[in-house]
Amino acid sequence: MKLYYYDHCPFCVRAKMVAGYKQVPVEYIVLLNDDSETCMRLVHKKQVPILEFDDGSAMVESLDIAHKFDEIGEKSRVVSPATDIQKKVTDELSEVSSDINALLFPRNVKASLPEFATKSAIEYFQGKKEKNLGKSFDQAMAETAEHKKKVEDKLATLSFHPDNTNENLSWDDVMIFPTLRNLTIVKDIKMPQRLQDYVKHISALTGIQLYYDRAL
Ligand SMILES: N[C@@H](CCC(=O)N[C@@H](CS)C(=O)NCC(=O)O)C(=O)O
């Protein structure tokens, strides 16, 4: 089995969390961000994550892939059911999604991530995301303080009080962790201590690396 993904992609993180936690033997392959050919060959559309089975068949959709990993992974490693908290927290985070994107997108291409190893991969992403943001990456970087403040204010009041001693991953974590993990690419972003502990805890539980060492 092979999982094709981008490191910065929050949907890919969902699938990788469950694969890591449930110790699924899967080969991880990072695609260049402008590699449409591989996606088209496998699933006839440009989208990751993609799970390719040994018989050559393939599937998309992060949560379907995550559930497949849950099904085939180590039985003793249980993913706890989702609760109402995931919608509340993801709704709260989505209130500042344009600020989160303005912080993350320009940093993603500067952080030496493998999906941006070529100039054409960077240009592909940058062209698309600058249109999406309605501003250049340079402008978004110049506005860092403003976007950071909005995101930090939201994090400070987030309705999320995780139990950071729980050794079971939950479907709430699968929905909440990817955004918080991606925000670790923002240098010195202020997160309440419980959320900092949470990202470290879930990172250790799933093997997903954080971005503190390359934050900018
Ligand atoms: N609903 C999909 C969304 C996946 C998605 O939007 N992936 C993005 C990367 S973060 C993508 O492949 N975009 C197309 C592109 O990069 O050209 C899922 O949950 O897997």
Automatic annotation (TrEMBL):
InterPro entries associated with the record: GLR_AS (IPR011767), Glutaredoxin2_C (IPR007494), Glutathione-S-Trfase_C_sf (IPR036282), Glutathione_S-Trfase_N (IPR004045), Grx2 (IPR011901), GST_Omega/HSP26 (IPR050983), Thioredoxin-like_sf (IPR036249)
Domain GST N-terminal: 1-77
A Pfam family reported for this protein in Swiss-Prot or TrEMBL: Glutaredoxin2_C
A GO CC annotation given for this chain: cytosol
Signal peptide: none
Name of the protein in question: Glutaredoxin 2
Organism in which the protein naturally occurs: Bartonella apihabitans
High-level lineage: Bacteria, Pseudomonadati, Pseudomonadota, Alphaproteobacteria, Hyphomicrobiales
